[in-house]
Amino acid sequence: MTDAPLLKVRDISKFYGARIGCRNVSFDLWPGEVLAIVGESGSGKTTLLNCLATRLMPTSGTIEYRTRDGQMRDLARMGEAERRFLMRTDWGFVHQNPADGLRMTVSAGANVGERLMAVGGRHYGNIRETAGDWLRRVEIGIDRIDDQPRAFSGGMRQRLQIARNLVTAPRLVFMDEPTGGLDVSVQARLLDLVRGLVHDLGLSAIIVTHDLAVARLLSHRMMVMKDGQVIEQGLTDRVLDDPREAYTQLLVSSILQV
Amino acid sequence: MTTAASELATYNFAYLDEQTKRMIRRAILKAIAIPGYQVPFASREMPMPYGWGTGGVQVTAAILGPEDVLKVIDQGADDTTNAVSIRAFFQKVANVAVTTRTRAATIIQTRHRIPEEKLTTGQTLVYQVPIPEPLRFLEPRETETRKMHALEEYGLMHVKLYEDIARNGHIATTYAYPVKVEGRYVMDPSPTPKFDNPKMHMSEALQLFGAGREKRIYAVPPHTEVVSLDFEDHPFEVQSFDKPCGLCGAENVYLDEVVLDDRGGRMFVCSDTDHCEDRRAHGHCGTMLAYGKEAAR
Amino acid sequence: MATPLVVSEVAKSFTMHLRDGIRLPVVSSVNFSVKAGECVVLGGPSGIGKSSLLKMVYGNYGVDTGQILVEHEGQFVDLATADPRSVLAVRRVTLGYVSQFLRVVPRVAAVDVVAEPLVADGAIPAVAREKAETMLARLNLPRELWQLPPATFSGGEQQRVNIARGFITDHRILLLDEPTASLDAKNREIVVDMIAEKKRAGVALLGIFHDDDVRVRVADRVIDVSAFSPRKAAA
User: Fold this and answer.
1) Are B205 and B260 within one domain?
2) Residue B245 catalytic?
3) Contact (CB<8Å) A106/B158
4) Is pLDDT above 80 for A87?
5) Selecting from 3.40.50.1820, 3.40.50.80, 3.40.30.10, 3.40.50.300, what CATH number does the domain A7-254 have?
6) Which residue in B76, B248, B249, B286 is the catalytic one?
7) What family is reported (chain C) (predicted)?
C-alpha cells in the first residue's frame, strides 16, 4: 500500500432541480480499500456512485483521482477522451443489470476481449487466450467462450461482466448492487468470487448496496446514506455492530436472521 | 418536342436546384478535407426510392458538368436495371455523354464494385451507400458512435472481426469490410466485396460516398492511405478464385457465378462487364467461350 | 516488561434511538493495561459489559471518551480515534481476536479460513495453508473437514476453526472472547496449552473465560469489570 489516496472526494453535491440527489459528500479512498455505500432506494447512493464514476456531472464539489503516473487529477478538468480511456482501462463499472454492462449479442470471449482490443490488442490468439483465462477465473466453462451472454443465467452474466471489467487490471472498480436480482446461492458464489479477486488483485472498490451482509463481507469501510447525505461512516464492523445514528440502528435491526 | 434538349428545360441541369448542389458540394469539400469522416447533409427527395442509390445520385448530380462522361455500374455491370435507369436519368436531366468504358468515363457511379481497370487522376468514383456507419450493428446509438469516431475508440470494430474468427475460424466478412482511412477514421467502404478494398488504397481517383436515406457524405481523396482492419495472426486477405473468367480468361479479377441450367451447370465470369468485353475484344478467350464457339460450330 | 495495550479513561454508552433514544451506560472510567507475556482476564457477572469492553479494545465498538492505546510497529495507535484504515492495519499486524462465534464466509474451506490472516498479511498461500493444517490437526479437527466450508460444522468444530484462525498469527496482542465455551475437556486442555505458549512468546492476552477451571489456570490477573459499571456505581 502506498501512502497516498487513490480517490479524493470533496463536497460532492448533485441536485436535480430543487431535489437533492446527494449532498456534501467527502471521503478519501485508499489503494486496496473497499468502500460500501449503503442506504435504502432513493437515499442517493446510486447518484453518488454515478457522480464518482463520472457518469453524472456533480453540481458542485471536486473528485480527484491518482493516475498511474502518480499525479492527482481533477476528473472534471480531464478531457473526455482521457476520461473515457481511464474508464475502460484503469476503472471498471459493474452494473446491477448485467445487460447494461455487457454486449448481449457478441460472444463471451469478445465481451471480455473488447477492452483489450480497445487498448490496441491486435493478436487474435492472445486476446482469446486472455479471455479464456478470465472466464476460468470467474468460473465460466471454457466451452462457453463462443456463446452469447443471452444464453447465460443471471449469475453467469454477472460473473462475465466482472471478467469483462477486470481484464485490463483496473485499479478502481465501481459496483452498483452487484448481487441484486440474484438467487441467494448464486449471490454467495459471486460474493466469494469478488472477495477473492479484490484481495488477489489489490483492487480498490466502491460498492453500492442495500444489503448489509454484502457490505459486511466485502467492504473495509462503509458509508450510510439517507436523504442524499452521509449520516454515518467508519469501519464496516464498527458501523454494523455499534451503529450510532437512529437510521443506521433501524437498518441494522431490520436484517432478517436466518 | 421529344428531344432531350427540349425536355432539359423542364428541369434544372442535373435535376437538383443550384442551392441544393451548393449545399452538397460544401459537404463534399468538407468530406474531402477530413478523409473518412461522415459529413451530414440535407438529403433531398429524389425521383426514386431510398435504397436505389439516392445518395450516389445526389453526389453525382452535384459534381456533374456538361463536359463530363458518365458511367454507371451496378454489381460491376453496366446493363443491370439500377445502372440503366440511373444512366438514363442523367441523360435525361443533364444530357451528358455516357459510356460503359471505364477508361473513357470522368465520373463513375457505382453500386457494390470498383472497376477492375485502375482508375486514374481526374476520375471520380461515386459510391451508393446504404449504411454509412461501420459501428452501427455493434453500437446502435448514433450519439455514441459519433463520440467513438471523435475519440478514435475503434476497439469495437475488432470485436466484430473477433466474432467472425471465433465463429468461422477466419474473418468471414466478405463485403463492406471496414477500413481505416489515413490512419484516422474507420470507414465502411459500402457493400463492395473486400476484393476491391486494396483498390481504394492510394487510388489516383477521387472517391465519394453518398448515403441518401442516412443523409451522410464521406470521401477518400486521391493518394490516401486506406487500410483494411485485421489481426496480426489473421491478416486481411482478398478472395481468390480457382478458375479464371469463363469468357475472357482473366485471372485475379472478381468473378460472378452464373447458373447455366438445372443440372448443376455453372460458370464463373467477370463481374466487371466492361473489363470482360474489353479483354475479349483484344482476343482473350475463356474456356466457356471456347466451348460455346465449338458447340455453335 | 513492555506494555503493548493501555486502556485509559474509557467510557461507553449505547443510545437506543429505536426505543425513544434511551441511553444505556455500559462502562465508564475504565483504566487498565496488559503487559507482554501476561494474560489478563475480565471478570464479573454476565451482562456487566465484559464482551462490550473487549469489542471496544478491538475497535469493533466505538467509545464515547478515553483512549485505547495499542503498540503497533513501534508506536502507539489510539484505536478510539484512529481512522478505519489504521484500525485495519493494527488488526492485520498487531491485534488478534478470537470471538465466541465464527462468522462464516460462504464457500471458503476451513483450512483457508484459518490461513486467511497470514495470507492477508502477505504470506505465501501454500505456506500459510501448511501452518493452518498444523493448527487444525493440533485442535483435533477431523481431517476430512479441512477442505469443507465450516457453515455446516457443529458449534465445537466451528469454535476450533475460530481458535486456529486466531492463534495462527504472531500478533503481539490477542483478545479472547470465551474461546473454550463449546469445547470438550480434551480440547480445552489444548487451548490452555496454546495460551501458555503465547504467554511464553511474550504475547499480551486479554480474555473472558466463564469456565472457572480454565480461568484459574490461564489468568495472571483478573480485572473486575463491575468496578467500571455505572449501574453498580450508582447503586
Assistant:
1) no
2) yes
3) no
4) yes
5) 3.40.50.300
6) B248
7) Belongs to the ABC transporter superfamily.
